[in-house]
Design brief:
alpha/beta, globular, Aldehyde Dehydrogenase, Chain A, domain 1, 6-stranded mixed beta sheet, about 20% strand, binds NADP nicotinamide-adenine-dinucleotide phosphate
Length: about 450
């Protein structure tokens, strides 16, 4: 099988690679295990120094621009966002370099022993199956805590970003991590089962779609290995009467359009109470009409292409099905064809009926679903009427409303008067069909360690 890098802004193929044979794959897994036997003996100070060096490389202005361009070329994100993504990768390396030792330090427990405590010890090789939408950030937020904890990493990246995948391995090697500690595996999705079932591989994490998550969890379940899953989302963005409307609209547009609309935690369903619905809607439509679509390498561009031809076709299918099913299209609703790539017009669909087949879908592109509700009860009920539960954003100045939203919204995170975002300092993850387990923060580094209980008399 071949793995191809295609520029979604032009449809032109950039580079093609052959997938690893199963024999080479096996050799790489053994190499990971050999590397682990030595790497597990390294100190936190040494791992921290390597992570700091990786951060320095990522912060180098010229280098980081080249890596940002690579992301934009392979998957189409606007260049400014790609530059910011490289910087964010540096910040997660620094965060775990600075706090890893404190997170992993032994913890005393008072029991009937003379002394008892917990130790956090590495497990071995951890497999990461990653998506293309944040080709650097998704990998670094897995790798920084995993390597700090003393594990070694095997990356199966999405098939459309092979050059990013290869580059990330080079960065870790250049930072000084020993060979075999971080390896990119250019493999196809069906080869993932071979990796997770290898005895040297101890656990796996996947960020991606529900079918991919189910497939990995099944394969891991057969061999009793732990998984962390970060899957899809259809996050609500609730706006109530007391919200600062101008700020809410500005953030709503940003939250929906980030990464050309292809973010798991993008706000996807905008739920607005009736009293402010007309004002919100007219400002929202107006802001969408001003977005610049075009070449993602141009700094003026707000919305670039979708990453793949299939993704562009799928979003159009969902939009047309929603309109046929009773939604009103306020703006957009079709492909944008002034350039040859996979572009889609920023689109707002109002009041998709619950009976429509797309009502509970995740829309992975520049399409906002707008709903009006009579009050907060209805807003919360609608927000929770979703198979997903990743991160909710709610806009209100009313303290009692804030408390209700925090308590009642079914999601892994609630952001009040702000956009849902990932941050190395805050645990990240979902409930319901958005997955399980957490990345980032202290919980993130504790997902792939042996929490060993020690009892001494
Ligand atoms: P995807 O098709 O599931 O791909 C993600 C990764 O899984 C890729 O590396 C892919 O490899 C691999 N994969 C696909 N099918 C597989 C299988 N049956 N077994 C093992 N691996 C498999 O996802 P996508 O469409 O590229 O990404 C979009 C989805 O990811 C959205 O639902 C989005 O919400 C979600 N996402 C979630 C988060 C989060 O943190 N919760 C973050 C970003 C994205 P190939 O490329 O070779 O198929």
């Amino acid at each position: 099988m071949s793995i191809t890098s295609t520029n979604p802004a032009t449809g032109q193929q950039l580079k093609t690679f052959s997938a690893l044979s199963n024999e080479i794959l096996q050799i790489k897994i053994l190499e990971a295990d050999r590397a682990f036997q030595k790497y597990r003996q390294t100190t936190w100070a040494q791992r921290s120094a390597w992570l700091h060096r990786a951060a320095e490389l990522l912060r180098d202005e010229q280098q980081s621009l080249a890596w940002a361009k690579l992301m934009t070329l392979e998957m189409g994100k606007p260049i400014e966002q790609a530059i910011a993504e490289v910087q964010k990768c540096a910040s997660v390396c620094e965060y775990y370099a600075d706090h890893g030792a404190e997170f992993l330090a032994p913890e005393k427990c008072s029991t009937d022993a003379s002394e008892s405590w917990l130790e956090y010890q590495p497990l071995g090789a951890i497999l990461a199956v990653m998506p293309w939408n944040f080709p650097f950030w998704q990998v670094f937020r897995f790798a920084a805590p995993t390597l700090m904890a003393g594990n070694v990493a095997l990356l199966k990246h999405a098939s459309n970003v092979p050059q990013c995948a290869i580059t990330i391995e080079e960065i870790f090697l250049k930072a000084g991590f020993p060979p075999g500690v971080f390896q990119t595996l250019l493999i196809s999705a069906p080869q993932v089962e071979l990796v997770i079932s290898a005895p040297q591989v101890k656990a796996a994490t996947l960020t991606g779609s529900e079918p991919a998550g189910i497939s990995l969890a099944q394969a891991a379940g057969k061999v009793l290995k732990k998984t962390v899953l970060e899957l899809g989302g259809s996050d609500p963005f609730i706006v109530t009467t007391s919200a600062d409307l101008d700020e809410a609209v500005a953030v709503a547009v940003k939250a929906r359009m980030l990464n050309n609309g292809q973010s798991c935690i993008a706000a996807k369903r905008f739920i607005v109470v009736e009293s402010i619905a007309a004002a919100f809607t007219s400002k929202f439509v107006q802001a969408f009409s001003q977005l610049q679509i075009g070449d993602p390498l141009d700094k003026q561009t707000n919305v670039g292409p979708l990453a793949t031809l299939a993704g562009c076709a799928e979003i159009d299918r969902q939009v047309q099905a929603s309109i046929t099913g009773g939604a009103e299209c306020l703006i957009g609703g079709k492909k944008w064809s002034e350039l040859p790539g996979y572009f889609y017009e920023p689109t707002i669909l109002k009041n998709i009926p619950p009976t429509c087949a797309t009502y509970r879908d995740e829309f992975f592109g520049p399409v906002a679903l707008l709903f009006t509700v009579s009050d907060l009860d209805e807003a919360i009920a609608l927000a929770n009427d979703s198979p997903f539960g990743l991160g909710a954003s709610a806009w209100t100045q009313d303290a009692a409303e804030q408390q209700r939203l925090i308590r009642e919204l079914e999601s892994g995170a609630v952001f009040i008067n702000g956009m849902v975002k990932s941050d190395p300092r805050l645990p990240f993850g979902g409930i319901k069909r958005s997955g399980y387990g957490r990345e980032l923060g202290r919980p993130g580094i504790l997902e792939f360690v042996n929490i060993k209980t020690i009892w001494v008399k």
